[in-house]
Amino acid sequence: GRNDLRDVFTLTIDPLDARDFDDALSLRELKNGEWEIGVHIADVSYFVYQGSALVAEARRRATTVYLVGQRFNMLPGRLSENLCSLVSGQDRLAFSVVWTLKEQSLEESAGDGGRPSVWIGRTVIKSQYQLSYGQAQDLLEGKWPVVEPAFGGSHAPRPRGRGNPGVLRGT
Prior knowledge:
alpha+beta; 7-stranded mixed sheet
């Protein structure tokens, strides 16, 4: 009952020392020239049931707390660092918002009344890349490093126009 997005270019962006990856981004160009963009968050609800002692304890803790050299998880590490972590190369369950945009800018789209189509639902994804904040910032600043897929997965799409040499290049 999930939309299978495992073959879609997907990445996470987190601190260098991150141990859990709870959100991801995806991007793919569709055959009609439109772009599909996805935002994914780990589906913890598949593993944690309402009314359970685990939910009560997670509510009591409210969040994961990070201190220098220490971390106090909201959920047990087996969940937050494994089953509910969107680690590269692993099939993972997620809740996703996926929208389709035309190649024109959002401003142009809004000006002519065009609206992106949006889909929200349960998915299964597979992240190919784990970027640090620094690597993501380099990309935004036009520094186009070669970033290897974390598990030998697919290559990133290459945006057209404006002389962009490409976002990421796999092996």
